[in-house]
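Just wondering, does anyone understand these tokens?
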Amino acid sequence: MIDTGSTGFMLLACSLVMLMTPGLAFFYGGLATKRNILGIMIQSFVSLGWTTVLWFAFGYSLCFSGGEGGIFGNFDKAFLNGIGIDSMYSNGKIPEIVFVAYQMMFAIITPALITGAFVNRVTFKSYMIFLTVWQIFVYYPFVHMMWGGGLLAQWGVLDFAGGIVVHATAGFAALASVFYVGARVDKNSTPNSIPLVAIGSGLLWFGWYGFNAGSEAQVDGITSIAFLNTDIAASFATVVWVIIEWSRERKPKFVGLLTGSIAGLATITPCAGFVPLWAAALIGSLAGLVCYLAVQLKNRMKWDDALDVWGVHGVGGVLGTILLGFFATKAINPAGADGLLMGGGATFLMKQVVAVVIASAYAFIFTYVVLAVINLVTRVRVSEDEEMAGLDTSIHGERAYDDGAL
């Protein structure tokens, strides 16, 4: 029997997560220079189409069909074979069709997160190949291992909504892409539209309620606490980031405020349905501090991660996964675990640390290698002339604004 309340909520959550990809496009598009707005935005929007094709063909099956205790699923549900209007998800409350759609939205946004690192430096053809290969060999196996009954889940690792699966893998893939592609020719680039960044940030924050609360896949108390934990962590991270930046630079920066909110959202993602409200405040505060320091480290090391994907998503995902090992409690979620500070031993914490380190290292190494292989087929980096002209005109033959605008 379908639970209509849970089904209705999950359809709404699915829509919220879908909205995050356009939100990401606006966020990155506003941060890019005027000559590269469309070039970065199309990399998010194209994932809405192409990732859906892959997910329908075999992505969902590789993630959620068979393969218990393994790294990949199988092809039993390829082309959504056997999934009809009467098929139910394993919790018995929502149709499997709804779960297919919800998880598809996660698959769409995850590789799009990476693109902010190499804005205005990568050809569209090479990106399309990368988008395909990275999903198949990085995203799909970690989804299966974590949420599809695979290796990490059976080992006892927890990840409520994607600290490992989404943010750690995407963040460290972004760092590897920066190392491979190299620095921008013109590093003196400034955001073309901070209001556009604000619109994107607002859409991401709004959509994140579906991202985290929807990961319970039904409506219950855990759904509610995941929702509020999301807001609390984002808010505390925002405030901490502003305080630190204000004290250091003597001016409160709007872009910094917006970046801090995303850091808090990324960091609470693995924890949202497993920790109490007071822990979400601590997690958000630590996210604001640690992710800010990570961005400063990136600047000192001269890693040209243009839009701070590693410092915000990569470090946030790793931090949240580790903090879950401290603050998780079965008093909130009986299906979870007790962290080190909540009466549990160190074993669960160590599992969290090992899992996120392996995921981050694998994503980093695979990304670097696959970009090198793609470059043998088609050039990855644009020419210097194309970069200076901007990808909007040199690659896509379009302009974001009429002559004279902005």
